[in-house]
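Let us work through a complete example step by step.
Step 1: write down the sequence.
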Amino acid sequence: MPLSPKRVIHRKVQRGRQHGFATRDNNIDFGDVALVAMDPVWLRATHIEAARVAINRKINRAGQVWIRVFPDKPISRKPAETRMGKGKGAPEFWAANIKPGMILFEIGGIEKGLAADALKLAASKLPIKTKIAYKPTKD
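Step 2: predict the structure and record it as tokens.
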């Protein structure tokens, strides 16, 4: 079952606008290697889950993976071939509102090369352009 909130205050929300860059969730806080979003998008819960599974399979469940995004926005759709009017459609899936610069996943506790390979594989499961970022070393 994909990620979704246990409870929400409002069952349906307005779409809003996707503009600007991430001013939070844009620092590597937990791991050593991170996957960074380069485009604005609504990332579905199924996309996040597919990327998570790909990462865990690649690293053989060694190290630690942090998922930095959570799908908390209900996206509603009206059924196909339905006339206009009669209210807003039912919630169809949950999405995370992603802005450019947001950290999506972080990996720590394993070799940086393997972590980067796992994040490349995860990036292939996502519908946006991403880049891999490394935590600066303190020398």
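Step 3: interpret the result. The chain has a mean pLDDT of 93.
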